[in-house]
Each structure stands twice: as structure tokens, then as C-alpha cells.
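quick one: iron/sulfur cluster bound model?
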Amino acid sequence: MLTETKTTCPYCGVGCGVIATVDVTGKVSVRGDPDHPANYGRLCSKGSALAETIGLDGRALYPEILGERASWDASLDMVARTFTQTIAAHGPDSVAFYVSGQLLTEDYYVANKLMKGFIGSANIDTNSRLCMASSVAGHRRAFGADTVPACYEDLELADLVVLVGSNMAWCHPVLYQRLSAAKALRPAMKVVVIDPRRTATCDIADLHLAVRADGDIALFSGLLAHLAQSGAIDENYVGRHTSGFAAALLAASHGRLAELSEATGVSGMLIRQFFRLFAETQKVVTCYSQGVNQSSVGTDKVNAILNCHLATGRIGRPGMGPLSLTGQPNAMGGREVGGLANMLAAHMAIENPVQRDRVQRFWKGPVMADKPGLKAVDMFKAVADGRIKAIWIASTNPVVSMPDADAVKAALAACPFVVVSDIQKDTDTARLAHVLLPATGWGEKSGTVTNSERRISRQRPFLSVPGEARADWWQFAEVAKRMGFRSPFDYSGPAAIYAEHAALSAFENDGERDFDIGAHAGIGDQVYDDLLPFQWPLSHTGASQARFFAEGGFFTADRKARLVPVATPVMQIPDPKFSFTLNTGRIRDHWHTMTRTGKSARLSAHIAEPFCEIHPSDADKAGIGDADLVRIDAENDRSIIVRALLTERQMRGALFVPMHWTGETAPSARVDTLVSSLADPLSGQPALKMARVGVSRYVPQMHGFLITVTRPLDLPFAYWAIARTEGGYRLEFAGSPPADGWEPWLQHSLQLGEDEQFSGYVDRKTGDYRLLAFDGDQLLAALFVSPQPVSVSRQWAADQLKQSHADRQARSRLFAGRPAAGASDKGAIVCSCFSIGINEISAAAHRGCRSIEAIGAALNAGTNCGSCRPEIRRILDANQALAAE
Ligand code: SF4
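yep, here:
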């Protein structure tokens, strides 16, 4: 018998519905939920591979105190006692919670209630601060509340979709699929991508504006001025529903086209085309994401975009409006419960005494935080300087993800009391915990999440809870009870928490607050279990509402929106030693610090190593060749080593390095160690896309590549990066050879016994060295070492771990690291769903497949999640260009 459970994907802010099926053997499979309005059955590569990421390896299964297994009672008592004593001795602001957009709304609600309403501090912040705090601040400045005015359907209804700082094809893939399907149906629809890189998203772009970092304020200010000059302002809307237009326009109306071109890095011709398109198109949606938010002027960028929509009245109607895309699955839920240090709960403001009093009366709390708490960057600075003496980190890995990550690591290492709740035991942050609390993971926990279009969906459990893991809400509630707050935290389960959250949203809400889900105030367990996805608001009187502000009704005192004058940032002349701008971000198949996606061999096959995108002419000047290693040095004296990837998709003077690699997977590639803690003064969001760095070739004594059935214990190399592969691991490394030689190192590092057979090979001319280890016919390891970057067919080599090697003669192929001439070699994986490599796609193109559809028909590639379709198109284009030469 099969059991099917409808739940929600735990990754990005698209919030796709997932149907998880468990068969009689306990095997889990997933597919997209055809009834979920976010995805209508689609899933991207990450969502499709969810079943591969739920294994128990590395899971935290029991509480630990100082690394020793402990009981829940002892652990919770210790947390409650230490927090209580710290507060008694040093005041409520001496403690903090750092939580996460991975938490469910119910978890978030309980943590926020405990900190703000019972401890009396607002020192609770979240990794969502790193993701969308500038959007929150921009919304609140313009609309008076953190309201997302548009919905996903608007992307399909628009005649012009502008994507700013958003690699939607990789970071919100299902929305990208919806957009590309809409464009395919209605080719007259235009798509403009504004991004320093020519990303996979540009595959469907009619225009790509490669704007320089932070040049988007000048661009959207210039656009506002152009809209005014070209008569595109909606005078009626502006007059009836907004204030501040004249001041915003005055601030925007500086400079001629040539100056705008200089400030943005975009040619005057492209700017003119974009402005004309925007001015002449009524149905415009502007989507923006981390490229806008993660900036020291992120809030101004958001308001520069909102100004253009408010000035044209293109908001809240089908196919029109600004739409911020959240990175995380429940960043929006966190905003709703007030999980940011500068918010209260249910979209109420901590600075507002009436709203503070209202929340306190509702919670019946003994105290109420009366000022904003410390935002993420300042929170960890306060840990470093001793103002915060006890911190509880839940469901996030700040030692990797925070800017100036080494300083965060040092701060936590010196902090008197660190509690970490996580599903994984060995994250870079969990290693610093005094108390480690095992949390339930996706498939085990129960609650709600809100996606980027304000749609609340259930995450439902379908797996039994392993070991002694417990829900995050339960952990916070148990500590609250032990701190003396028993009855306010005596919840029977997540339904009771959700019901209270819904009741608070409606409490004394006469329409002055946007967030109202009062219809669910008295919800019971069964209705909660059966809850269908819906968009808020859903007050006790009304129906759900897809859009806001078509007829004004903003949440300011006079119900008018504010157009905000924004200043164009002055371009700084960089120190010649740090002349590159470093951009950080995501790749297609991994999520955050890879604690889950890193478990999937399929997802790890697409990009198995950290890399740095650099323009070929910059690389040439620095003497860097493709596949060389590079060292990136930052102004803060930190450096990383990653693989060079030369590409014209990157603009000159800028680098891109992904954010996913950690101390567990590539310790020399923790890119956030390079990023300073500079943050937007209004939102507190760090400028994770604009570190100043220098780049140079890194020349090790040797380069190496290893495939192995077990993870090596000892990696004494300056650079290494490890990834899962079917049947084992693949390792890239470089540095100096081990002092005792390769065979002893391999034997010790892989714990190989005496009976294993080794065979080696040295090419005296090139200095290349190969070493194979077998147990009978089973390949245990194949090591490739070279003075140059190792040239072997990596995917073919990795696939050898799954093969039998009974044919002793054929084993010599392994020394070559590639198949015999004419034998198949799929090459680097492009389509993760069907494990189709670049060589297979190129061969099919050679045989006459000219379109993505033809490749799909021939190989299946691109026919499941569709995330690889932009890359398939690039391979086809490259093949056609070659054929034309
Ligand atoms: Fe999950 Fe992909 Fe959907 Fe995002 S787009 S919610 S990662 S399936």
C-alpha cells in the first residue's frame, strides 16, 4: 500500500506543493502537486531530488551537552537555567535568538513570543535578514506595511516582466518555468533582465542590461525621470493615492543619458530601449531578489523600483506590480510573526506603543520589548564584544553564511553559552554548541509556510521522527515553561499555535493592518490538517485577496503610499589591490550550506566544486587559465582558493563565487569570510554582493583528483572540495604532497586494510601519478595527481565506483582516467534528473537535434524539472556556432 501526503517544498520562496509517497518498504518518492497554485505539478531539480536528501547520515539524533549525549530534561533545564541566570545578572538584552527562514511559522511564532513578550528583549533575528530585509524596509517605507502587492499569476499576465538582481532560472526555477511557458505561448511578451552577469535567466530575455553593482538605483531613478518626461505618469493615481511624487522626481531627475550610462555601466542605447519599453507598456511586473536586497543601499533600490510602479499606477491590477521574491521557504512566515528584530508580531511595529500594548494584552506577557533588537550583523558583533552572553541558533549555519564569517566563528567560539538546534550534527556552527538540540526535518515536522505571493501552505509529516529529534516550537515552548512561563506556552501542537497566531492577526484589527488571517482564529486540528493553500489576507469576514493597492488603501496614517526620494550612490574609486567586485550567490542544484542537497549524488553532479567566474580578458591579464586555481584576497585580510571558470557571461572587473561550500565540503572556499559586515543602514541587510577583492593565480606543487567509496579522514591540502557521487565521493585537491607519500596517505585516510591491492603508475615525462586501490573486483579508490590541473573525465571516473572490475586488463583504462576511444563518456552532468552529460547532448546536436524539444525527445534531458533547459540551449547554440565556422 502507498501513502500519499501533500506537503510543501522546503527550499526556495516559490513554495511548491509536493506529493510525497511512501511505499510498503518505506521508500519515499516525490512529485509536484498538480493542485498547488504555486507550481501546478512542476518541481525543479532540487524539489525533484527531495527523497534523496532525507537519509539519516549526519543527523543529530540526541541532545548533547558539551559533545556528550544528554537527556532532553537535562538539556532543556540547562538552556532555561543559563538564559534565566544570564538575564538576571545582565538584563534581557544579554541573550539572543538567531533563527531561520527554514523554520515553520509555528516555530517562529513561539520563539518570537518568548523573546519579545516574556524575556522582554527584541534580540531575535533571522537569516532572512540576509535575504530580504531590504524589501521589508522598502515596503514599509512606501506602503506603511510589509505588503507584497502582486502574485505569481501576474508574471503570466504581464506584457513586460523586468527581472532585477534575480537569476530566476536557478534560484526560483519553477517561477521561471511558468514565465518561460507564458512567453512561449505569447511571444509578444517581453522579458528584461537587469543583472551584472549574463545568467541562465537571460535565455528568455529580450534585453539584458548588465548593470554594474549598485547601478540599479541610478537606472530606476533615470526611469522615473523618463516616465515623467514621456507622459507615462498616472496623474490620477498619483494624486489620489500617493504622496512625495515631486520630491522623488526631483531626486531622480539628475544627469543626462551619458551620465546614466556611466553610473550604470549600461550603454545608452540599451537604456533607451528599456525606458521606452517600460513607458509604453501598461502591464508591467518588476520582480526583484537578492541582487537588489543584498546591498548597503538595498532599501533605496527597492524604493527606486516601487516609485516607478506607484508613479504609473501599475500596482495591484492583473499583470502589474512589483514582486519581491524571497530566497527562503518561509521568509514570509517569519515576517508575519515578527521574527525580525525590528518588528513585533502580525505585522505590528515595535516602535508603536499602541501596538506594543495590544500585543502584550493579547499574550498576557509580563514584559514587552519596547525597542528594536539587534539585527543579524550587530547581533554577532554583540556576541563578539561580550554584550550578548547566551545565544540560541536554530536551523541555520551563520559560521558559513554570515558576512565576515570567520569573525562570527570566533565570536561564537568565545561566547559563554551557545545553543544550536539543527537536524545535522556536524555543521560548522553546531560544532561550537555547548548544547546541541536535535530538530525534526522536512517530512517529519508539521506546520505552515508562506511563499513569496503571500500563500500559506501546510508542511505535513510523512516520516517517523528519528531518534529523539523534536520540533523547534516544542523546544522553545519547553524552555519557556522551564523559565516560569508555563501556561502561555502550553500548546497541544502546531494547530493550537497557528490558531493563536491567526487570532492575534485579527485582534483589534479594523483593517488598519494588512496581515489578517482571522478566519482561522478558532481552527481545530482537523481543519488545520486539511488546510488548502490560500493567500492572505483571509479575515473572518472576507475572502482571500490576490492583490493589493489597485485602489490605494495603503497602510500609512493617511492611507496614501509614499514615493521616496533616493540618492544615487557615489561610485568609489577602488584600491588597485582590490579592484574586483565580488558577487556571491546560488547555483542551480544546491541549497544554502548543502546540509541537505549535499546528500544527493545527483544534485552534486552538476557542479561539484566551488568556482570563480571571471571574464577571459581579466583572467588573461592576471595569467589565469581555465581550470587553474585562483586565490581571492579581500580587504579584511581573508582569502579563499577556488577553481577559475573563464566566461564572457561575467562582466569585466567583477567575479562571482557561489555561497554553498563550508568547512565540511571545501574549507578554503567559504566565500562569506571575504565579505565585510557593511550593511544597509535602514534594513540591516549585509552587502553580500559587493566585497572588494583582488584575484591571482594560485600555483600549488600538485593538483589531485580522487574517487573513493569512503570519505577520506585526513585531508592535509591547502585546497580541497568533496562531493557525493553514486557509490562514494569525489575529491578535488591541491597543495603539497603528503609527507609520507601517496600510498601510505591513501591507506591511512581511507582506513584500507592489508588485503587491499594497490597498483600505481608514474609518467616520468609529465610527472603525472596514478594509484588504484581494489578489494577484489571492487574499485575502492582511484587517485590522479599532476603538476598541472588534472585532466581526466571526471564523471566517467566517478561512474567507475559502481562498476565491477573483474576484467583485469580493462583496469588499465582507469589509469588513463577516461574511456577507450569510441566508448561512451557522458561528460559533466547537465540534466540532473536523468544524469545526461554535456557530451551526450553535444553528440545529439551533432546528429541533428536542433532544439531543446528534440534533445528531450532523444535523451529525455530537460523533460522533467526543466532546470537544465537554459544550459541545453547554450550547448545547442555553441554547437551551431561551431558548425557554422
Ligand atoms: Fe522547491 Fe524548486 Fe519549487 Fe523552489 S522552485 S519551492 S526549490 S521545487
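The two ends are 58 Å apart (CA to CA).
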